[in-house]
Amino acid sequence: MNYTDKVVYEHEIPDGSKLYFGDSARLKREIENKASSILLKNGFSEIITPYFSYHQHLSVDPIKLVRFSDRNNHEISLRADSTVDVVRIATRRIKDTSTKKWFYIQPVFKYPSTEVYQIGTEILDSDNLLECMNIAKELFDELKIEPYLQISNIEIPKIICKLLNLPIDVFENGRIEVILGQNLEWLNKLATIKDAKDIDEVISIVPNELKEPLVLLKNLADSFEWKNKVYAPLYYSKMRYYDKLFFRFLSGNSILSGGGSYEIDGRICVGFAIFSDALIEKLSK
Question: What's the whole-model pTM score?
Answer without folding.
Answer: 0.90
